[in-house]
Amino acid sequence: MDKVIESSEIRKLFKNGDQILTGGFGLSGTPLTIIDELLETDIKDLTVVSNNLGDLGQGLHKLFMQGKIKKAIGSFFSINREAVIAWSKGELEIDLLPQGTLAEAIRCGGAGIGGFYTKTAVGTELAEGKEERVIDGERYIFEKAIKGDVAIIKAAKADRLGNLVYHTTARNFNPMMATAGNIVIAEVDEIVEVGELDPEYIVTPHAYVDYVIQSKYSKVGSEYVESR
Amino acid sequence: MDKVIESSEIRKLFKNGDQILTGGFGLSGTPLTIIDELLETDIKDLTVVSNNLGDLGQGLHKLFMQGKIKKAIGSFFSINREAVIAWSKGELEIDLLPQGTLAEAIRCGGAGIGGFYTKTAVGTELAEGKEERVIDGERYIFEKAIKGDVAIIKAAKADRLGNLVYHTTARNFNPMMATAGNIVIAEVDEIVEVGELDPEYIVTPHAYVDYVIQSKYSKVGSEYVESR
Amino acid sequence: MLSQDKRLVIAKRIAEELKEGQIVNLGIGIPTLVSEYLDDKEVFLQTENGLLGMGPPPTEENLDIELINAGKEPVTYLKSASFFNSADSFGLIRGGHVDVAVLGILQVDIKGEIANWAVPDQPILGVGGAMDLVTGAKKVIVAATLFAKDGTSKLVKELTYKTSGIRKVDLFVSDYAVFTFTDEGVKVLEMMEDITLDELSKKVGFNLEYAAEFNSSK
Amino acid sequence: MLSQDKRLVIAKRIAEELKEGQIVNLGIGIPTLVSEYLDDKEVFLQTENGLLGMGPPPTEENLDIELINAGKEPVTYLKSASFFNSADSFGLIRGGHVDVAVLGILQVDIKGEIANWAVPDQPILGVGGAMDLVTGAKKVIVAATLFAKDGTSKLVKELTYKTSGIRKVDLFVSDYAVFTFTDEGVKVLEMMEDITLDELSKKVGFNLEYAAEFNSSK
């Protein structure tokens, strides 16, 4: 088995209206090459689940600017000025969740858990319309699990079967996104042979990963540069 | 900071009626030295949360035979003949949970999640008396999070701060137990200096661990032997 | 056939059902035997205590008693393997990431609901991962001899033992026949013995039908 | 004082509040400055994007833009560090394993409830980890100048900005005074400026009281 494919081959894996789970925090751990491939398609009306909508005009920001995103579910969109304006005009739907709630909801989506009760956001505007429940004397709100049609993630290394390891804080949302997508595409800096990754240290087992592509981006100083 | 203490010092950390979270599956990953120390105390009326109650007359089995366990919460007690008899006589309370539900409930306990909805056990005897809820057309039952007064766990290596890594399937319930105990004691095969464990591969961060002790057991062939 | 032979025939037939690249969980008993008939087919065995990529039992030399399967037997691991904690392991199972679970049963009813954890008239103090596997695996194959030691059929109109969950299984491979379960209930897919449908119906105590895709050559 | 001086005074005072060995999460703004005043005190900085054991900003040479804090600034990591995913990171926070969270605020009311995520009259499209930290940290210290740029007090009788949660904070370190919050509400613990209780009360617009443990020597 070999899950490594050419990046252009992934374009056919998406369809209009898909809910796309996207790893990354800021640009760290964002699958920039996969997003570039999406830009080459005529897919539209996407719902994107991601902590933020790109940063510095890169990543999901480009997808948004191309008008492909109908709705965003995440925790921090304030710095994306264009998204804020689109939302104000009613051109972009936004579901705002606390960051921990977002992470947990995706984990549940991948783990066969239908929903959960969290203390976070109780009594705030973000709890409005959500069921509240007292458990052992403490107030909690109900949150539903989140799943996606396609999960696009970024890891440091993959073996050809799709086992993944991550690099420092570029891990962030990626391992959860990998569990909750119907189709899972991993973009990686390096592809190695099966057996080169230590079984004790694999973070995402290959069972979760459908396709692996080589990233075209490298870190050069303070930028991610398309270099391949 | 140095969290390493002599094993006998842990005796004072327990009190009558404590709920003790115990790592291990069978005897793999069971904190045998910590359990031996508990045997030296006059602590009683314990509730033990553990997948099983020891195996082959070792581990929690010894604690049970000493009459210290009032209640057990876990997934598989059938092979512990004495426990089954005690339960039949009404001398031992048992809460039986599916193994995945047990693991998830403890994870929730450590993560500030009050409870969750699982598909497992819907329509079975183990769902009796539990709230059922339909989410997106599928049936789920509610399970409450589980926490403990003390968590006793077994890892392969600890650094002096309490960062932990595990060995193969001896990992099992230990990482979750570590998050859900008020006091957390880790028994390890090897103690190393801070900096010797790779930050990418630490499974349990030191924030969860209060005390570290050196295990007195070694694996000799098909047995765990007290050797130190 | 001798009892062990029957078990091996069942295991072998189930091995044929598995596909290259699948993630498979094998329960205790007959299901464990399936791994001996995989030949060159690369399937990845998951064990719910935290390992994907389980290998064969160890030799005496490379025995490591911390490295075990869900039946608490020593195992080895393959080079593609990964280890994880119990919560993540059941996330894999319950979340639908295990392609096939092969499970032993006490009973299966004509709709495909199974009982495989609680023996009647005995204290019920063990469930393990049985219910999670029934609920979560993409496909569930059950492996059992068709008749219990006392001669009663394990295929029943209605479960008399306690159910393992509302999820219906896909296939029941027994020593007499392979049964499929669809919305219309149980059908005979293949005969494993030289026996007619009538004879089999008499043995189980109710009328059975062939599946549309019944394979008489088997 | 100049604005930056005030910020440093607040950060330094908060650093005194932290204890050897604590797990601490520092928010963006003044809280980030706290790390500069820790001297030899070993506290372990957690950043919610997945790192415990955050070190100082990198030099140009060891810059790694994938290694960032929650404010998306490049950081380094210490040898005791560990990395984890976002779900586990918020498990650490929400589960009560962070000893102290130091947070910026827009307002804090006299009971200790804070508003620190939604600026009025602006679209509210960001919350990040603010609510998780307020809810989950064992102790919450807020760091802010006492008065906004328009001169209004951030310590208010009732929040007019949107609340970050029902959890009351423990301490508010401002440029004028340190406030504690108990069941009886806000009390003045220390003066940070040469100012009387009356003068301070007038400035915030309501009567303040000393805490029982008021320290006049500070």
Describe this structure as you would to a colleague.
The complex is a heterotetramer, with two copies of chain A (228 residues) and two copies of chain C (218 residues). Chain A is built from five helices and 13 strands. Chain A is α/β, with parallel strands linked by helices and 228 residues long. Chain A has a single domain, classed as Glutaconate Coenzyme A-transferase (3-Layer(aba) Sandwich). In chain A, the strands form three sheets. In chain A, strands 1, 2, 3, 4, 8, 9, 10 and 11 form an eight-stranded mixed beta sheet that branches. In chain A, strands 5-7-6 form a three-stranded antiparallel beta sheet. Chain A has a two-stranded antiparallel sheet with strand order 12-13. The model of chain A has no long low-confidence stretch (mean pLDDT 97). With 218 residues, chain C is α/β, with parallel strands linked by helices. Chain C has one domain: Glutaconate Coenzyme A-transferase, CATH 3.40.1080. Chain C contains five helices and twelve strands. Chain C has helices at residues 3-17, 30-33, 86-94, 130-136, 197-204, and strands at residues 23-26, 44-47, 51-55, 76-83, 100-103, 107-109, 114-115, 139-143, 155-156, 171-173, 177-182, 185-191. A nine-stranded mixed beta sheet of chain C has the order 4-3-2-1-5-8-10-11-12. In chain C, strands 7-6-9 form a three-stranded mixed beta sheet, with no helix packed on it. In chain C, helix 3 (86-94) runs parallel beside helix 4 (130-136). In chain C, 50% of the residues are buried. The model of chain C has no long low-confidence stretch (mean pLDDT 95). Classes of the chains: A alpha/beta (228), C alpha/beta (218). Chains in contact: A-B, A-C, A-D, B-C, B-D. Chains A and D meet through helix 3, helix 4 and helix 5 of A and helix 3 and helix 4 of D.
